[in-house]
Each structure stands twice: as C-alpha cells, then as structure tokens.
Amino acid sequence: DNKIEYSQRIVDYIVNNTEEDDSISVLGNSCNYYILTNRKSASKYFYQIPIAEIDKEIMKEYIDELKENKPKIIIWGIANSSYKELEQQMTDFLSENNYKLVEDGLPIYELEK
C-alpha cells in the first residue's frame, strides 16, 4: 500500500537522522510519527490543525515553542489552502530558522547546522 510505504519512509528518515532525545514536530494530526519513532514533540501542541487556525493564541504558542525548542525535524504534509494563516507562519518560521526541505516528495524539513 502506497500510504504505508510513504509513512515508513518518513519514519525511517526520522529514526536514521535523529537521536531519541531529539525533538521533532509534526504539523497536522499525524501523531503516530511520535510513537513510531519514539521522539518527543517540540511543542505541547502535538496536534495543531484545525485548533491552531480556530484559536490564534494556540497558533502563536505553537510557533513560539518551535522557536524556543528548535526541533531537529519538522514533518509538514499539509500545504492546504484552508489554513492560509498557519501555512504562512510556518513558511516564515522555516525560512527564518534555517530549515530545509530534505527530499522532494517527503514533507520533511530539517534544521541546518
């Protein structure tokens, strides 16, 4: 199944490119990546969408926690026009904090050293 293979590639990348004490962030509702990789969330909001779009304070807290904790990897698989404000804030965060897209086709951004 393509979804399982796609998810496994993301899990493999996280496991192979982080340590267990590294934090990550998964933008959206794919919380299974935390469990499957045994990595902690860089934010108390491990599930952000749609709650961050509905409550702007949650969106601000989430972005602030990312700035403070600088997760090694961010998974972002939802470039969705329904969430324009959050999408813009994440795009700004990624570019301002030296994150790069690791591989075309996988929504993995990694903090550059």
Q: What is the H/E order?
A: HEHEHHEHEE
Biggest sheet strand line-up: 2-1-3-5-4
Number of helices: 5
- Structure class: alpha/beta
Give the helices and strands, then pairings:
Blueprint: H1 2-17, E1 23-27, H2 32-37, E2 40-41, H3 51-54, H4 56-69, E3 73-76, H5 84-96, E4 99-103, E5 106-111
Helix pairs in contact: 4-5
Task: Tell me about this structure.
The chain is 47% helix and 19% strand. The protein has helices at residues 2-17, 32-37, 51-54, 56-69, 84-96, and strands at 23-27, 40-41, 73-76, 99-103, 106-111. Strands 2-1-3-5-4 form a 5-stranded mixed sheet. The termini are far apart.
List keywords for this structure.
113 residues, alpha/beta, five-stranded mixed sheet, 5 strands, 47% helix, 19% strand, globular
Brief summary of the model shown:
By secondary structure, this protein is of the alpha/beta class. It has five helices and five strands; from the N terminus they run H-E-H-E-H-H-E-H-E-E.
